[in-house]
Amino acid sequence: MYRVIILVCGILLLLGGCDDGVVTPPDTGVGDDSGISSDAGPGDDDAGPGDDDAGPGDAGRPDPCDPNPCMNGGTCSAPADAPVCDCDGTGFRGDTCETAIPSTIGVSWDDSPTLEETDEAGQTPTASWNNALGAGPGQGDDGMKADLVGADGVATGVSVSWSCQDIETTTLSGGPSADHTMMLQGCRSWQGMGDATFTIENLNAHFPDGYDVVVYIGRGGGFPASHMATFTLDVGSDSVMGAVMPTFDGTYDLLEGAGDGGNYYVSPMHTEDTLTLDLAATGAATLPTAAVNGIQLIAR
Q1: What torsion, rounded to 10 degrees, do the Cα atoms 244, 199, 147, 110 define?
Q2: How far apart are CA 230 and CA 237, in angstroms?
Q3: pLDDT digit string, tens, across residues 163-205
Q4: Residue % of the chain over a pLDDT of 90
Q5: Which residues pair with 276 in a beta bridge?
Q6: What is the mean pLDDT of the chain?
Q7: Cβ neighbours for 221, distance < 8 A, ≥ 6 positions apart
Q8: Coil, helix or strand for 14?
Q9: What is the CATH number of the domain that holds 79?
């Protein structure tokens, strides 16, 4: 087609009718029948590399949270393209919120360091331990802490008051761990000088089906073996005798019978709305001592 135009223009040029000899071909692109515009140069293709919106984490890539791996109402997020479950407020814990948090209340007498809210400690590991020596009225050897929180961090209305000879550090080995922190200090009894006593109130509203009581027992640190004590522990109407263990190494040893050594005791099946506990250091040692390091109430 162009050859015909050029030939015609050449004839016209001889006759003086073609402008400067310039011929402008029709703007039909590369090949009139292809339908491809001549303006579509390299880099102008909208579907080219780098222009695809389907990047990582977008519709072009599987969503780590679909299906949701989090159980029991847990919320899923994927900050590093891997699912992470937020179990707050569900009453469950674990990587996928699969484990029920027992309804518990824990009280400890730790001071420097103290348990953080998320630290899990105890033979039944739970978080949100209440530090009896924390901010509030009655810090020290005699005191009271009201409106204790449960393992879920929610206030329960339960209160504890205590009276002891002093707050003393327990001898530890191994660690550190949250269990070491909980067992570090305790409310202590000295033989011949007085018992360590505790009163816990308003229990039935939080534990309508009853509760078990776990008492953690240690000895005052910095004292020689001559201060090693036996003790009598009363939990409501339940009474047991035991021997103080010389140190806490991170392992919980159950006190099972009279004169047995152990650092925790389980008193089951309580229904009292007000529970009293009493620890009395006994034995032939010189000024024997024993201390309650923690009290844990576990729903039945």
Answers
A1: -20
A2: 20
A3: 988 887 777 787 789 999 999 888 988 887 889 999 999 999 9
A4: 44
A5: 199
A6: 79
A7: 168, 169, 170, 171, 172
A8: helix
A9: 2.10.25.10
Output 43 or 69, whichever has higher pLDDT: 69
By mean pLDDT, which of 107-111, 132-136, 167-171 is the weakest?
132-136
What are the start-end ranges of the E strands in the chain? 75-77, 84-86, 92-93, 99-100, 104-108, 130-131, 142-145, 159-163, 166-169, 185-190, 196-201, 211-218, 230-235, 238-243, 260-261, 264-270, 275-282, 289-299
| Domain assignment of residue 30, yes or no | no
Q: Could you list the residue range(s) of the whole structural domain that residue 191 is in?
A: 102-299
Residue 221's alpha-carbon distances to 228, 244, 289, in angstroms, are: 10, 12, 10
Maximum CA extent, the chain:
139
For residue 116, being part of any structural domain is answered with yes
Q: N- to C-terminal Cα distance for the chain?
A: 97
